[in-house]
Amino acid sequence: MINLEVPKKFGVLIGQAHQIANEVMRPNSRKYDRAEHTYPKELDMLAAVVNGMNDSGGLSGAGAGGVTRGSVSENGSLPGRHGTRNSSNLASVLSVAEVSWGDVGLLLTMPGQGLGNSAIAALANEEQLERFGGKWAAMAITEPEAGSDSAAIRTSATLDGDDYVLNGEKIFVTSGERAELIVVWASLDRDRGRAAIRSFVVERDNPGLKLDRLEHKLGIRASDTANFVLSDCRVPKENLLGSPEIQATQGFAGVMQTFDSTRPLVAAMALGIARACLEETRERLREAGVEIDYDTPASVQSAAAAEFIGMEADYEAARLLTLQAAWMADNAMPNSLQASMAKAKAGRTGTDIALRCVALCGTDGYGEGELLEKWARDAKILDIFEGTQQIQLLVVARQLLSKTSAELK
Fold this sequence. Notes:
With 409 residues, the protein is an alpha+beta fold. The chain has helices at 11-34, 46-55, 88-102, 104-108, 115-123, 126-132, 251-287, 303-330, 336-361, 363-366, 372-379, 389-401; strands at residues 137-140, 156-160, 163-174, 181-187, 197-203, 209-214, 225-236, 240-241. The chain has 3 domains: 8-128, Butyryl-Coa Dehydrogenase, subunit A, domain 1 (Orthogonal Bundle), CATH 1.10.540; 137-241, Butyryl-CoA Dehydrogenase, subunit A, domain 2; 256-401, Butyryl-CoA Dehydrogenase, subunit A, domain 3 (Up-down Bundle), CATH 1.20.140.
């Protein structure tokens, strides 16, 4: 049976992540929010620290690159049926949430912690894991005409000898300028629809991968967001993640498994921001003389106290859903539904809590003298990327109602 208390063995991991958040992220948060597109050199030293976190206590997966699917046992049973595993996915979620408490924009630009690393960890074979290990990977999915509907992407991949030739355009690629690798979603045959979509690992210095521009953004300004044009971009066929065979029932599902691992990570980022906002607001309310009494019904407390208690309840619900999705991945259980539920709940909750905390704190929340204003801007993207709120709810509805994408649009 699942136990959603934080495992004791992750105590050191969380403590190290908090130290990074408190001593590196928070002090530089406003600096790189203002200096958009400037690389935070303070993060260079963290790559070694994160590697040390992965090795702490024999753990692996302290960051985005650590997510993977649990495996079945030798007798074919799932680990979750005969004892539970708390492994890399849960470790990743806990560490990402803690570092996001410091600054989510800086987290997104930490070397080796791109969402492309999650895709590689989830889909790559042993040879690819060895070859791409230790490199920083971004993920390129969105296109000008294919945003929320990932199956509608038009970037093509044509086999030519020992290479695939990629042509198309990708936008809103997080860490796209700084990463060493770009995991590009492309179609082997656009006439075959979603079944033909595959992921390809492209070296950032590939001459066929051309940086078009960097976006100026509402939030997460410490992280670069790039747009690319792929023009006759030649990629070795060994860089394809998964099978090259086009199978109507399995192809796209394999690619989409990436989201089962990355959506809980985005949910964890939202949890980190939400917790930061709640802690700051609690202190402001205390200074203003507002008492929060958990032994008294919220309805008979001050409006500010009642609202704060409601926000904490939403945060706790999002946290438990996120831990459940990660735990299921660790135990080789299908978690697509839970991953989307966690992303939908945490993305909305993070944004909602940040804005409500700004309102409760008044001038302290709205001015640039405090970080609440910045957190409110940073939070919004977490309700959008890796699948918008509306897409997550659609995925959840399809699964609960047993409907296909054609039956429920």
